[in-house]
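User: Batch of two.

Assistant: Item 1 of 2:
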Amino acid sequence: MSHLPIALLSLVLAACFMYFEYKKEYRIAVMLKALASLAFIVFGILSSAISVDPLFARRIIIGLMLGGIADVLLNLRFVFPNSGKKIFLVGILVFLSGHVLYLAALLPYSTSLLLWLGIGVVLTILVLIWIFSKITVAMAFKIFGIVYIGAIMLMNSVAAGILFSAPSKQSVVFFIGALLFLISDIVLILNTFGPKQQQKLRVTNLSLYYVGQLLIGLSLQFLR
C-alpha cells in the first residue's frame, strides 16, 4: 500500500469534481474528473511494478486508461449539451473497450470458462429485464446497454469463477472492484434514464466507480 496517497488523491479529486458538477460548473468539473481518473491510472501503473504477469498488468492498465478517457467523455456531454447523446454513446463504447480488456486479462486464469460465461449470460438477461422495466430509452441506447451490461457482467462472472476456484488476495480485491464497477454502472443507467435524476444516486454511482477502479488497480500489487 505504498502508493496509498495517490489512491486517496483520486478520491479527493473525485469528491471535488462531484461538488463542482452539483454546482453546474461543468468545465471545472470535467477537469477535476480527468485528474481523478489520471490518479487511479497512475496508481495502477505503480501497482503493476511488482506484478509477475506483465500481460495481465498491461491489459489492466490499458483498461484503466480507457476508463479515464470514458470518464471525460461522459462529462463532456454536460459541457456540450447539443451533442450530449452522441458523446454519451462514445463514452460508453470506450468503457466497453475497457471491460473487454479486463475480461481478456482474466481469461488465462479461468479454469471453468464456459461455465462462468454461461452464468454471466443468464445474469445479463435477468439484470437487463429488470433494468428495462425501470427505464424508457431509444433503441440505440438499448442496443448499447445490452452489449455494455453483457460485457461487464461476463467480466464479473469470470472474476467470480477465478475467486471460487483459486481464492487469493488478488482475486478477492479484483472481484470486489469489478462488482462495485458493475453496481456503479447499473446505478448510472437507472439515474440517467429513469423518471427523475437524483443527486444521491449520482454520488453513489461515482463513489462506487472510483473505489472499484482503484481496487482493480490495487489487485496488481497482489499478483506475485
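Item 2 of 2:
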Amino acid sequence: MSSSSLSELPTRRQSFSVVFAIELWERFGYYGMQAVLTLYLVQRLGLSDVSANVMIAAFVGLTYITPVLGGYAGDRILGPRRTMLMGAFALVFGYAALALADQYRALLFFAMALISAGNGLFKPNAANLVRRIYEGDDAALDAAFTIYYMSVNVGSTVSMLITPLLQDRYGPASAFLTCSGGLVVGLLYYFWRRRWIHHAGSALDQGMFQMRPFLLVLGGFALTVAVLTGIIASPDIARACVWVASLAIAFLWGRLYLRSETAARPGLRLTFLLCLESMAYLIFYQQMMTSLTLFALRAVDGDLRIGGVTLVHLSAGQFQALNPIWIMLASPVLAALYNRLAAQGRDLSLAHKMVLGFGLVTLGFLIWWIAASHAQNLVSAWVMVLGYGLISVAELLTMALGLAIIARYTAAENSGFMMGSLYLLWGIAMYAGSLVANFAAASGEPTTGAAAAALYVPLFRDLFIAGLVLTGLLICLLPLAKRWDREHVLASGLFPVPDVRPSMPLEVED
C-alpha cells in the first residue's frame, strides 16, 4: 500500500467517533422510552402495577436476550457494521410505532417487539466494532470502553429529563417520536462520516454488499419480531422463554468451555463467574424502571429543597435521570482512584470491585427501607438522590465492567457471541427484577403519601437482606477468583516470572 493511501486512512479516534455518536443517540432513544414506559402503561393505558411489571419484564428481558442472535448474525453472516446499521433503522421504526400505539393500541406489542429485535441487532455489534477498532492495544481499548460507556449516560441523561416532560405536557406520542428522531440524528452523522468507519468491522463487512446474507438476516429479523410480539402479549410464554434461554446459555457456555484449549479455560471460568455476578446486580438495577419509579410517583416529594428553597422539581419519570447523572459524576473520581491505587501497586481486581458494588447496593436499599418505614407524609426527594447515587456507583463497579470482561478474556472470533451472551444474562436478570417489583404492587385504587410508602417497606427490606447475603457470598468467592486470575495470567504468558507481578500498571506507556 502506498504512503498516500496510508495517509488517507482514518485514525482510530475518527472511527471510534462514528460508533460513539450512533451509540449516544441510540441510548438517547432507548432510555428516553424507558423513562416514560412504566408511567405510560399505568397512567395512560390504565394497567395495574402487576400487569405493567409483567409486560415490562417480558419486554426488557427479550431486549437483552436478542443480542445473542444479533451477535451471531454480525459474527457469521452479515458483519458487525452492517448488522449494527440494520438494528439502528429497526429502532427508528420501533419508537415511531410506539408513538402510533397511543392511538392504535393494536400496535403496542408489535412496537415493543420491533424495539427488542432491533436492539438485538444493534447492541452487541456496536460494542464489537469498538473492540475491532482498538484491537491489539489493551490500554487504548480500556479507555475507549470507558468513553463508550460514558456515551450511554450522556444520551440517557438528556432523554430521561426531556421525555417525561414531553409526555406530561404533550402526550406520550411526542415522547416516543423524540426517541425516534434522536436516532435519526445518529444515523445522519453515520452516513456523513461513513468513510471513517468503512474499514472497520470484520471481513464480512469489507466485501461487496451481497443480497443473500442481507435477506437471510432480514428474514430472521422479521421472524423474530413476529415471535416476540406473541411472547410479549403472553406472560406464560414469556416465562417459558426465559427458562429456555437460561438453559441454552448454560449449554452453550459449557460447549464453549469444553472446546477451548486448556490455557484459555481459567480466563473463561473467571469470565463466567464475573458475568453471573454482574447479572445479580441487574435484579436490583431493574427496580429503577419499575418499583422505584412507582414509589416516586406515589410516595416521594418531587421538590429538591435546601433551607426551604426549591432548587428543582422532578417528576416520577425524571428521577431515573439521577442514575446517569451520578454515573457521569462518579466515573472520573473512580478512574482517578483506580490510577492512584495502580501507581501504588494496590490495584483492585474485578472481583474486589464487584464486592464493593454489592456493598453499595445493599446500603442503598437500606436507606430506602428506613425512609419508607418512617415516612410521615411524602418521602424527601433527597432520599432518592442518595439512594440512586449508591446504586449508580455500584453500577460502575459491576455492570459497567461487563464489556471489559468480555474484551479482556474472550477470543476475537467469539466476541460477538459472548457480548450477546452477557446481554442475555442481563435480560434474564431484568425479567426477574421486574417480577420482584410485584412484591410492592398496588392493588385497587393506588394510595399516596405515607400509606403508599408503607407498601414498599417489605420489598426494600427484602432487597436489603438479599444484597447483604450476596455481598457475603462474593467475599467468600474472592480467593477462587484470585486463583483463576493468576492461572489465566500464567497461561497467557503475560508475566515471564511466575511468582512475581509488576508493581506498576500495565497501561504505562513510554
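The CA atoms of residues 134 and 140 lie 7 Å apart.
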